[in-house]
């Protein structure tokens, strides 16, 4: 089943095993989620942030992860 959300930005943290996606939903709201992948696993990316259900009125309102990986910022 294909995802209906449109990813606007995907930021990979150092090591490329964790990323944060900022996306727009079909209803026009925005959201973000944090994902991880383990190269030795082979299953691909999976959600570890569980933020995907939160809604924001704009892309800029969706929190972003600092490049250092030390928490979310607005």
Detailed description of the structure:
The protein has no helices and six strands. The chain has 74 residues and is mostly beta strands. The strands form two sheets. Strands 1-2-3-4 form a four-stranded antiparallel β-sheet, with no helix packed on it. The chain is elongated.
E-strand count: 6
User: What is the helix/strand order?
Assistant: EEEEEE
The largest sheet is: 4 strands, antiparallel
Quaternary structure:
single chain
Features:
single chain, 74 residues, mainly beta, four-stranded antiparallel beta sheet, two-stranded antiparallel sheet
Concise synopsis of the structure shown:
The protein is mainly beta. 0% of the residues lie in helices and 36% in strands.
Write the layout of secondary structure elements.
Layout: E1 6-12, E2 18-24, E3 30-36, E4 46-47, E5 64-65, E6 72-73
Antiparallel strand pairs: 1-2, 2-3, 3-4, 5-6
